[in-house]
Amino acid sequence: MRKLKITELNRLTVDEFKQADKLPLAVVLDEVRSLHNVGSVFRTSDAFLVDRIYLCGITATPPHPEMHKTALGAEDTVAWKYVKNTLDAVRELHNEGFTVLAIEQVEGSTMLDKLQLEANKKYAIVMGNEVKGVQQEVVNACDGCIEIPQYGTKHSLNVSVTAGIILWEFANKLMAFKH
Predict the structure, then answer these.
(1) Are 36 and 66 in contact (CB under 8 A)?
(2) Please, which residues have CB within 8 angstroms of residue 178's CB and are 6 or more apart in sequence?
């Protein structure tokens, strides 16, 4: 097997990305403090054609050199908006017809492997602070919660790893509706 060259990957240009048909999916970062995690979420969101990212509370906004180290330019492709209060972002998404789901361990959460999405619906996922997770008041405002099944001694994942797992699953299911 021969590794592909970067020129063989059929990457979209920034302009092509901005014009591309995005998934009906938004990401909300609730008080995420690490610039590397924010940058990683931008990069993963670019890879899976996420419509937009809401950066809330203490979550940093582009441009920032530390964020760029992991975003690698995705902070210039994926649409983003800063909203001081995460609840305001959730309300805005609800007003636009999004189903808003927190990624959190709660009573009655839906395990990711049991998640079923509907065609022609828009979804938003809320990911929380590295230590405290999604704020309880934000969880209360969401339409449900999704949990990633975990089987070891640790029952938490880094927010950027969580974003990768969740966004892959959503993209996989939402892309199936397009075909």
Answers:
(1) yes
(2) none
